[in-house]
Design goal:
TIM Barrel, binds S-adenosylmethionine, binds iron/sulfur cluster, single chain, 355 residues
Length: 355
């Protein structure tokens, strides 16, 4: 896989969603396909100390700081979303632990009447001290990324000098601090780490955590994604099942994205497969994404974004911001079309969108 297109371009500039009758969705984030949004993915930065091959080019250009939402703006977006029925908020990025005011972001968002405030992090900066502090500030749980257990390969995949054992230590620290159930995500890319599928699943057993193996999605900044690089859920389940017999454990309730499995021998931990490419779960999608620069993406694969930042900065009141969110939700597409010939990869990569 060559990585040669460093530019992060905006898909659209300053677009507002089509207006609807204010009474139409009764103050709830409902889309035109009958799905209700309860899960907000809030990207708090596009900066990162890793450059994972499936996500970010080595010479990625970060967004101008002035365009990133301030802590007050992030909290306001979260607050209005909660008033519209959002129950779960996931802080993501980029690497959220690099945010200079992360403590304030966690504390203020966790103070909202929301069931769950989680964070996805590469774990490089997560030690026991931070884990305890985040827990105290109100963070419910963390998801960590770990794509290889081999030092040399992890260095190549993340283009960092953080060893994989650092992420395992982070997972232990998070569990001890009560930031659980801890999840570990691994993106499986054929030709990079597909020979570690069984070993990565095995850490669910040794650490007693949930491991989620993710199909590689066309969201890399290099636009080098290719169907032949995707290792399908079927192949993953078959291979892991041969080493560790599995028992189906269904999905995590409505909006659950993961096909879950327990280990048939009763070992601790669980395996989940996120099969966005081969078994899309769009019909149950209950998510809305807000990028670090305040753009609403109705779908991970949207090529249209709605400029919430403009609405926030021109002084719209909460009612107008709520309207903007309701209208943006209404036009959530039915699903992505990765497998169709007309599929267009979004210009912005996962790091800019917030995974
Ligand atoms: N930096 C944090 C991390 O890596 O955990 C949070 C942001 S990262 C963009 C969120 C998640 O997106 C990670 O679990 C990462 O593995 C996943 N991701 C990034 N690019 C992806 C791709 N092209 N396909 C599938 N998952 C991807
Ligand atoms: Fe950074 Fe996460 Fe993207 Fe890796 S996946 S480059 S850690 S944002």
């Amino acid at each position: 896989m060559t990585l040669s297109l460093p530019v992060i371009a905006r898909d659209a500039e300053g677009i507002a969603p089509p207006r609807r009758d204010p009474a139409a969705n009764a103050g709830r984030l409902i889309d035109s396909h009958g799905r209700t949004v309860r899960d907000l993915r809030l990207s708090i930065t596009d900066r990162c100390n890793f450059r994972c091959v499936y996500c970010m080019d080595p010479d990625v250009r970060f967004m101008d700081r002035a365009t990133l939402l301030s802590v007050d703006e992030l909290v306001r977006v979260a607050r209005v979303c909660v008033s519209l029925g959002v129950e779960k908020i996931r802080l993501t990025g980029g690497e959220p632990s690099l945010h200079p005011d992360l403590d304030a972001v966690i504390e203020r968002i966790a103070a909202l009447p929301v069931k769950d405030v989680a964070m996805t992090t590469n774990g490089s900066l997560l030690d026991e001290r931070r884990a305890r502090r985040w827990k105290r500030l109100g963070l419910s749980r963390v998801t960590l990324s770990l794509d290889s257990l081999r030092d040399d390969r992890f260095a190549k995949l993340t283009r960092s000098n953080t060893p994989p054992r650092r992420v395992i230590e982070a997972a232990r620290a998070a569990s001890i601090a009560g930031l659980g159930p801890v999840r570990i995500n691994a993106v499986i890319v054929r030709g990079f780490n597909d020979d570690e599928v069984e070993d990565l699943a095995g850490i669910a057993r040794t650490l007693g955590v949930d491991v989620r193996l993710i199909e590689f999605m066309p969201l890399d900044s290099a636009h080098a994604w290719d169907r032949s690089r995707v290792v399908s859920a079927d192949e993953i389940i078959e291979r892991v099942g041969r080493r560790y017999p599995l028992r189906s454990a269904g999905r995590d309730g409505p909006g659950g994205t993961s096909l879950n499995f327990a280990f048939a021998d009763g070992a601790p931990g669980r395996l989940g497969i996120i099969a966005s490419v081969t078994r899309p779960f769009c019909g149950a999608c209950n998510r809305l994404r807000v990028t670090a620069d305040g753009q609403i993406r109705p779908c991970l694969f949207s090529t249209v974004e709605y400029d919430l930042r403009a609405a926030l900065r021109r002084g719209d009141d909460d009612e107008a911001i709520a309207r903007f969110l309701l209208d943006s939700t209404w036009v959530k597409p039915a699903g992505h079309a990765i497998d169709s010939t007309g599929f267009e990869q979004p210009a912005r990569p996962m790091s800019a969108i917030g995974g």
